[in-house]
Design brief:
Structural class: alpha/beta
Order of helices and strands: EHEHEHEHHEHEHEHEHHHHHH
Radius of gyration: 20 Å
Largest sheet: 8 strands, parallel, barrel
Low-confidence stretches: 1-8
Number of strands: 8
Shape: globular
Distance between the termini: 31 Å
Length: about 375
């Protein structure tokens, strides 16, 4: 059931961007023929999933693998995520593509894990990522949020992990709008206090942190954080509402990017960043600002269900032959929401074959009795 692969498996990735480091957090393609259930093991169409990663690399984007967009903890279990990491790492080596992979604790039960359990789970996943040769992203942990008594538990546990990593990692601060179980991360519900804990952790471990990915949908807080990071530590925006202004930056600096919205926006995003490479900030904003309306629609509350719109657009664009998601989450958004996503993406020229996209959208609406006849 794999989609045709428009990119040769051996085609090398183009030269990297010069001005920014940019990752697209990539979705996974489900296997619609698998006999599974929403709470059963994930069934992945590996051919179509890896073809989509080659599509992202073909535009010069890095791939952020096994992250939120890949439905970690929301349909994609750790067993499937580990296989995804290994397969994507092999593809990245074949094309010379940039790859970062998420390491978390989602092999643990949802409730009752101790801090020792969390540490061991992180170590297992970190070992898988490092063995694959990828840059690790230490993802926010639901189990740690539940088990930690305060900021010191975070500094101690993350410090233990950073001392044993073989390469610098990306730390991920994911807000509770993306996952309600992460409320109070870094040991406090006060964002200023949480920021101080994160900055202290980075300062405690020089040379161990490649960057901090901040996904709080609060551009002012992101700017204040990035101005306080050491010069050797990147700030990766995960703000899918304000990314053009944050990547463009100001007189004091700019954000790099690790964004779920760059999954559907890959061609436009890559072309815009290449304008930045030439110093054309106005051209970058002119290219990317019009995409924000679509991004805000896809990531509208409840934000955690943004993946449904991302997968819809991949289907409409021809990157896969069906609109099915692991965990059955194709039903997580309403049909009016999906119809509007198609309209906004079409207006941006995102579909290589607009007629095919329109035909597929009409078919979806008809099947569910929501056509306008």
């Amino acid at each position: 059931m794999s989609a045709p692969d428009p990119v040769s498996p051996s085609a090398p990735a183009p030269p990297p961007f010069r001005s920014r480091t940019v990752f697209a957090a990539a979705h996974v393609v489900a296997d619609p023929r698998a006999d599974t259930t929403p709470d059963g093991p994930a069934a992945v169409d590996w051919d179509a999933t890896l073809a989509f990663r080659r599509h992202l690399w073909s535009h010069g984007l890095g791939v952020a693998e096994a992250m939120d967009t890949a439905q970690r903890g929301a349909g994609l279990d750790w067993s499937a995520a580990a296989e995804l990491i290994r397969r994507s790492a092999a593809e990245a080596r074949a094309v010379g593509g940039l790859l970062a992979c998420g390491a978390g604790t989602d092999q643990l039960p949802a409730h009752g894990a101790s801090l020792a359990d969390v540490r061991h789970a992180y170590e297992e996943q970190l070992g898988t990522v490092e063995a694959a040769g990828a840059r690790p992203v230490l993802m926010a942990s639901r189990q740690l949020a539940a088990a930690a008594a305060g900021p010191e538990d975070y500094r101690e546990l993350y410090g233990h992990l950073l001392r044993q990593t073989t390469r610098p990692v990306i730390l991920h601060w994911l807000g509770d709008m993306f996952d309600p179980a992460l409320a109070g991360y870094w040991g406090s519900t006060a964002p200023d206090t949480a920021t101080e804990t994160l900055l202290a952790l980075v300062a405690d471990h020089p040379g161990k942190v490649d960057g901090v990915k901040i996904s709080l949908l609060d551009p002012g807080r992101e700017v204040r954080l990035r101005r306080r990071l050491p010069r050797t530590v990147r700030c990766y925006t995960g703000d899918d509402f304000h990314y053009p202004e944050l990547i463009a930056g100001d007189d004091h600096g700019f954000s790099h990017a690790l964004l779920g919205v760059f999954d559907p926006l890959a061609p436009l995003a890559a072309a815009a960043v290449r304008r930045l490479d030439t110093g054309d900030t106005a051209g970058f904003r002119a290219a990317l600002d019009p995409t924000v309306k679509l991004a805000r629609h896809l990531f509208a509350a409840p934000t955690r269900h943004y993946k449904t719109g991302v997968v819809l657009l991949a289907w409409l664009a021809g990157h896969q032959r069906h609109f099915t998601m692991v965990g059955g989450l194709q039903s997580a958004r309403s049909l009016p929401h999906l119809r509007r996503a198609h309209e906004l993406a079409d207006a941006l020229g995102l579909f290589p074959d607009p007629e095919r996209a329109a035909r597929r959208m009409r078919t979806l609406l008809t099947v569910y009795g929501a056509d306008d006849t």
